[in-house]
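Quick illustration, no need to memorize.
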Amino acid sequence: MTDAPRAHPPETTEGWYAFHQVFTIDRAALRQLDAAAKDDAVAELSKPITEGWSAVVPLIGSRADVMLIHFRATLDDIGAAQNAIGRLALVDALNTTYTFLSVTEAGLYHASAQLAAEAEQRGGKIGDEMHRAAMDARVDAERKSAHVHKRLFPQQPADMPYVCFYPMSKRRAVGQNWYALSLEERSRLMMAHGMTGRGYAGRVSQVISGAIGFDAWEWGVTLFAGDPLAFKRIVTDMRFDEVSANYAEFGEFFVGKTTSAREWIDSL
């Protein structure tokens, strides 16, 4: 009896770290805060950021009240943002409902499958010197492309104020184990999945962040749109893709509309 061949992960390239904080508001505690405490919160949430950005998203139809989204260059920068929020007097009126730590990611499924096949054809293997050199060159080329750069270092779209965030993982059930599929099969499935997403270009801006090693869920999906119905449509279409129909598990959805820190504080 021989062992089944090992299923290899795709190469990935990463960009900014992302941190989603979801809070409920303690109204009684909020009424105890003075104007200075609220002004401090506005100043912190509005201050310029050298690399990255933050967004305030009052939630609609959720068990929570507000979501803060932070994109930063390093994990330490995320920690600094978390600590800065934690020092605000406003936090005394906020209860953490949910957090999600991740890093923006581009999964290079097609390149990984292609280079794995080339290594096999020449009698080599994944991870050998020639394969590694070819993969490093491919990653470098991908990072220089405008499309991948946009995915790794996303900008907040000015004309898409609505936000939908949810975590997800790939299924590992018997007979439906994503991680047991070959690179070639995963590449095929993800290519079809990506084509569905591209059909919403101009209507939905998608930020995919990897959370393996950072969170119980494996990926975070942050969607921006000018029309909130676009969230329903794109998620429905993607769930009918073969990859999602067979292998995707979804967590809780948080939906809201971005606003300035000043407008949010004044609305409280």
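The mean pLDDT is 93.
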